[in-house]
Amino acid sequence: MGLKILLVEDEAKLADMLQRGLKQEGYQVSVAMSGTTGLEMAQSFTFDVIILDIMLPEMSGVEVCKKLRQQELDTPILMLTALDSPENIVTGLDSGADDYLVKPFNFGELGARIRTLARRRQNGIPSSKHLLTIADLEINTQSKTVTRAGAAITLTATEYRLLEFLIQRQNIVLSRIEILENVWNIDFNLGTNVVDVYINYLRKKIDKNHPTKLIHTIIGMGYVFKQEEGA
C-alpha cells in the first residue's frame, strides 16, 4: 500500500489534478476543501504526509498547522502557498510546517518533497520544530548538526550561529551590521571584516564542490542566503 496523504486544498481544479497525479504515483489521497475539514480529518485519521494550502476558507493553513502541532501531532506537513515573500514563508514554517512549496510548482518537485518528508518520519528524523532546510542542506537546531547532500559538516560554534541566522532569514538581503548585531551580539566597529571572514569560512564548508550555491554577495548591501543553481 502507498503512503496515505491528506491534501487540504480549496481550489477544486488544482485539488483534482493533484489527487489524480498522486494516485498515479501509488499514493492513497484524501481531500479536504476547507481548513476546518482538514483539521478534523487530520485529527481523526492517520496520514503519512499532510499537504496544506496556506489560503483556505473557514480556517487558514497556518491556523490548522498551529492547532495540529499544539496537539503534538507530528505528521510531516508540506505547506502550499502562492505568497512567496520571505515573511509569509517564515510564518508558515514557524507555525510548524516541515517544508513549503510556492505555487505554481512542478509536480515532480512535489513528489520529491513528499518522499523526503516521508523518509524523515520513517527514519525518526525530527520535524520542523528542530530541522531547518534549504536545497539539500539540513540543520538540526536541537543537536546543532549540519549536513549537505547527506554528508556531515563540522562547524565551529561561531560558524554554526552564523549559518543558523542565515538560513532562518533565507531570501532576505542582510547587511554586515545586521549580521554582526545578531550573530556576535556586539556593535562592532564598521571597519571590521569579521563577517566577510566567516562568510568565507562557511562558503568553503557549505558551498564548495556543490553546483547549487547558497551564500551570495550583494555588492554594496551585504549577503543573501538562497538557492541558486550554478552561482
Automatic annotation (TrEMBL):
**Could you tell me the Gene Ontology terms of the biological process aspect for this record?**
regulation of DNA-templated transcription
* GO molecular function ontology, one term from the record: phosphorelay response regulator activity
* Domain Response regulatory intervals: 4-118
Q: Which residues bind DNA?
A: 129-227
Q: Which UniProt keywords apply?
A: DNA-binding, Phosphoprotein, Transcription, Transcription regulation, Two-component regulatory system
Using the record's annotation, list all stretches that form the OmpR/PhoB-type domain. 129-227
Is Phosphoprotein included in the keywords of this UniProt record?
yes
Q: Which GO terms describe its cellular component?
A: cytosol; protein-DNA complex
Entries under CDD domains matching the protein: REC_OmpR_CusR-like, trans_reg_C
Modified positions (4-aspartylphosphate) in chain numbering: 53
Q: Give the domain of life.
A: Bacteria
Read off the PANTHER family from this record.
REGULATOR OF RPOS
Q: What is this protein called?
A: Transcriptional regulator
| Annotated organism of origin | Rufibacter tibetensis
Lineage of the source organism?
Answer: Bacteria, Pseudomonadati, Bacteroidota, Cytophagia, Cytophagales
